[in-house]
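Marked as duplicate of an earlier ticket. Keeping the data here for the record.
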Amino acid sequence: MHASVPLPVLLALVCLWGTACANAGTADYNVRLLKAIEEMPAAGIYAKYRSDLPEARRFDDLHRAVQDLGQAIRAGENGRLVVEPDRAAGCGFCSSATYLLFCRVVAELQREGCVSNDPALSRALATVGDEGEVIAGKLDGIGLFGHWNADGPGTAVLFRRLDLGTNFTDIRLAKPGDFLKIFWNEHIGKGERGHSVVYLGEAEGGESIRVWSSQTENDDGSAGYGVMTVEKSRIVRMLFSRLERPENLVNWLK
């Protein structure tokens, strides 16, 4: 198992990264993802269904989070992906946070020539969808974000479909920087309770793990973007996805 390592120590590994894509087959994209977390928004509103509000406003935060995500990710005039995380700083939910992080790294890799600059791919990455349809689940499995945001193994399905990397369930194989879908109950799809995060490693003692995402309460007491410690006993199932072949995003266009 991999123990949790403080982010500053993890970031020190970035010097080993390099920018050449000739060694893409051996590149550690987990390091790049961990570095990008340091540049993501902090705190904010964790968007969720609000039963305490009048019925007409109960989905307002969720709708706003989808709108903000759509404003934060766009295809630029040169065809490359443009990601501005601060545009989504105010409000987010777990899968919007991890997708925003993913797209930020993809945009960097496009600039370095490691991922295709095809405008059609950038537009596909930037197409989040109508906020009402997204939150109602009508776009689950439709489009890149629709796969990522879907109930069940959405991100893992996308990784398998495009051959972006390895999916696995054994935490002994996990490394900081892996994407992780946590299942809080036995259900998949209808009745499911899950959480999309980035795995940061085990907490001291090995009984808990540390994760980054947008969540109800972080370790520092804030809500929204941040780091949370989760007891393993609360988790029913874990599904990890490791980014290894981002250049295969171009398979979406085939």
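See parent ticket for discussion. The radius of gyration is 17 Å.
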